[in-house]
Design goal:
This protein is α/β, with parallel strands linked by helices. The protein is elongated and about 75 Å long. A 10-stranded mixed β-sheet has the order 3-2-1-4-5-10-9-6-7-8, with helices on both faces. The protein is 46% helix and 20% strand. Helix 4 runs parallel beside helix 5 and helix 5 packs antiparallel against helix 9.
Amino acid sequence: MNIKTNTVIACIDGSGLSEAVCDYAAWISQRVNSPLKLLHTIDHHPETAAITDLSGNIGEDSCDYLLEDIIRIEQQHSKLRLQQGKVLLQAAKERAMQNGITDPIISPRHGNLVESLIEVEDSIRVLVIGLRGKVHDNQPGQIGTKLESIIRSLHKPVLVVNDAYKSPQRIMLAYDGSNAAEKAVDMVASSPLYKGLICHLVCVSKDEATSQKLLEAASDKITQAGGIDLITQKLTGKTDQALCDYQSEHSIDMTLMGAYSHTRLHDMLLGSFTAKMLLSTRKPLLLLR
């Protein structure tokens, strides 16, 4: 096993979803036999603009004293953030070990989360992250500000967690015949992550004949791979609503879909189908690519 290219990474930030992120990451790590890394970033952004603004209104000596105070306060804040990060990672490590992970890796990093993930992208097998970070903890209708950039920047599977952990038994693969959907089907067929689960292969289309043909081709791949109890279903209506309704009616534990191209996400993620599903689904969403 090549650890460098085969790590499940869980983003831990102390938000209300952090425990669920840790739990889902541990579940994936065990099923695909990959190391689990718990990542926490400490972003240092000292605000210095105020010093420049005040320098013309107060004496030079006063400005120097003010600068010293701001630097001292910022250093104290940095120490507190470091201590908080250690506490969060230690708690996540203990939780992961309780979930059966023998040696979770703790990874505190300094800097921007998106940039940190891009730097380690080659080592990621699956990234697990909460739908909202600590800043948006009490805003259920919001997508985390960093999540958009992460999805558009990375080329690896991303599991977006939006609720407390429940061991997945029934998954739903949204399929539309696109290149992204075909790749998702191949990944489901070949990965040990989905073995032993019930997979609902669902196609939403106005054309019943076309959806039937698409489902047959995709179901053949998954069936031939073996190890997955497959159910196929044709749906009509507004795609995101139809999928979410089906998810609720059939007690789906996790939804899978191929992510759209980076070009489309870059243009306007918040107007894309990906974003609609992120906001509408009530279960974790695994974006495959």
